[in-house]
Amino acid sequence: MRFLKLPLAGLLLSVMALFTGCKSASNEQKAPVALIWELVENNIESGYYENAFILKNISKEPLTKDWTIYYCQLPRRIKQEENPAVKVEVVNANYFKMYPTDSFTALAPGDSMRITFRCSYTLNRNSLAPEGTYWVGTADGKPLPIAMTALPLSSPETLKGYPDATKIYEANLRLAGAPALSQADILPSVKKAVPAEGKVTLEGKVALTFADDFAGEAKLLKEKLAGVYGLKVAEGAPVTIVLEALADKKQAVNDEYYTISIGDNQIKISAATPHGIFNGTQTLLAMLKGKQAPYQLEAMTIQDYPDLLYRGQMIDIARDFTTSEDLKKLIDNFASYKMNVLHFHFSDDEGWRLEIPGLEELTAVGSRRGHTMDESNCLYPSYDGGYDPDAKTVGNGYYTREEFIGLLRYAAERHVRIIPEIESPGHARAAIYSMKARYNKYIGTDPEKANEYLLNDPQDTSRYSSAQSYTDNVMNVALPSTYRFMEKVIQELAAMYKDAGVPLATIHLGGDEVPHGVWEGSPKCQELMKEKGMTRIHDLSEYFITQLGDIMQKNGMKFSGWQEVALGHTEQAHQQLRAQAAGVYCWNTVPGYDEVVYQTANNGYPVILCNVGNFYMDMAYNGHPDERGLDWGGYVDESISFAMLPFSIYRSLRKNMAGDPIDLSAAEKGKTMLTAVGKKNIVGVQGQLFAETIRNFGQIEYLLFPKMMGLVERGWNAYPAWEALSGAQEQQVFDQALASYYEKISEKEMPYWAKNGTNFRLPHPGLMVKEGTLYANVAIDGAEIRYTTDGTEPTAQSALWEAPVKCDAPVVKAATFYQGKKSVPITLSVK
What we know:
Helices cover 26% and strands 24% of the residues. It has 19 helices and 36 strands. It has an 8-stranded parallel beta barrel, surrounded by 7 helices. It has a 7-stranded mixed beta sheet with strand order 12-18-16-17-15-13-14, with helices on one face. Helix 2 runs parallel beside helix 3. It is globular and about 85 Å long.
């Protein structure tokens, strides 16, 4: 560690504007210091990287020892030289602090110092840098914001995982020659479309008639026709849309089956259920995408239905609070693609986001994150780093009971079920600390009330660390109060659904990632184990889920949970749980664990396929340092989600974690295969969007669109043509299907998203230099490729690539431009 005198050569010259004082333009008080963070070197030793904060005193007084600086970052271990002037350490999981030690020497006004230390893992993504820095002076304990600049990673194209522009070019070549889209080429693809003679033209006005049972679907269709396509519903219009019951209900393959008949100035949508009618209206609206008024529809008949009746998307609002207005926007988008489940992940370690009458501490404490020394009034800052528990940040907020009831009704109108998740017994830190606050509030006046819903055993000395590095996030399953708490929340949820007029068939109970070492030091757990004759710590997990299964059954529901709720049990427990389970969400399909999915289905449990390698939307699109997201389960883009095969799951990933092609012919060898019983137990698919790296709603949309389109397609059409093929023929049919899929995204979906204000991602262009000539392509039809050869970042004014062009530059940078958006640029180093 060394002290520096400004100006600092090179590094600080570019950020001098940062060091201009400790008052903002609005005269808001700020900290007397400013910070710059930089990555010094990755992998300086096995599993660690070196990084540094440059701390400058921007006040008019010497900086003495009476301060602490806090910041947030994904969990990591810290290594530092002995006796540093400023110590850096973990406070809790992803919350850190640094403070002066006895070796610290006062820092004069204008002077700077460098704080260097090592962190576990590698850092290969700009969004994973420290964030949310704030200052607390010892004298007043008041948090103040710190101006900080995180310098971008240098030489990003040399980082492990950086996308290969030439491999992208070669992959894009396989998308060439896709046939022109027909009217019925939509997402998800329809099962059967038969063209007929004639056309129907929609211009200005349309008539709409419907059976009383379909009034809700007619209302929504009317709103979309007018709001998106300018088609006003009026009597006497030349074209009539008819919503009617299916004449022969036996024709319906399932409850979501529908038919459409277009011709003779009529569009007839028929189904046996309102849900089927709704699906038909969404197909009609989708066929209008990409067209201009007057809208011409070719005469045809369509017969369509989904292969899987559960098609869901999980949204994590615990780590990243998302408002009801934004969730309604997502629900509307989901419904337009015939998705029918929103998995509402409202509780986790970092937040509890739903008002529960009688347990006000869950939101008074558990929905707020900010500066605190004891978490008695709010939780520690996390991820976003906000220090003010009352500020409107993604760290703070919750749904009132009435807001949630409104959300339930909004979703139900669009045939989207909301399945709430109470994370338990792990991932429960927000609930645990909220109930600790309740305990402390009442212990002096009403001990019975204080202990009524307590979730932790104060005598528990267990040592463990969760997947997210928490050491205190697991409910104690031996406490009767834990079950009182769970039943209280379950009953209050049921009451909300009842008041909304919406059925509640299941609640997701979590059950995942209970860490090794938990409960081992709890006297209460040891007493329970002795009482019940338990011999394994896992027996406590089994006890918990069987107790909850009974509670759910008593309250007229089945339970759902992550895959762990169905693993490792005795046959007696399996017999109980199979009958009580609505869905087991199998997520860990990382090679080595991927057999669990089919093993669980074969064991008689209803399975929802949540493959991390295909459907975890929080995985980054690729290894580019400017792509936000995680990568522990690989990378996920729209082509990878499209490749998922529900009934040939081992062939769902066409590349390994290193990006190399997988031998699909050998992918299933030696693996557990689906039995006839198991196949019937595959009931659906679901995408997950955990929010550790998300900071705003635009980033939610960016990670979902277009990535979610593969989930949309595979839930509706679970048996793609290439599944039954092998070798070169399989690759050819897959490439043709993928090319058509990209055409739909390019010509219909992206223009639609741009029009309705939905954020989305554009893929990088592919680049190749061969014999001094630059070649380029992109998966998105109609997009522009802009490039530079002087090392600068491409802009909308850079050279437009239109045909092969001579190139002798050592570096080419290029980006995709389409619908007012720009992709993350990509660099090709020419050898």
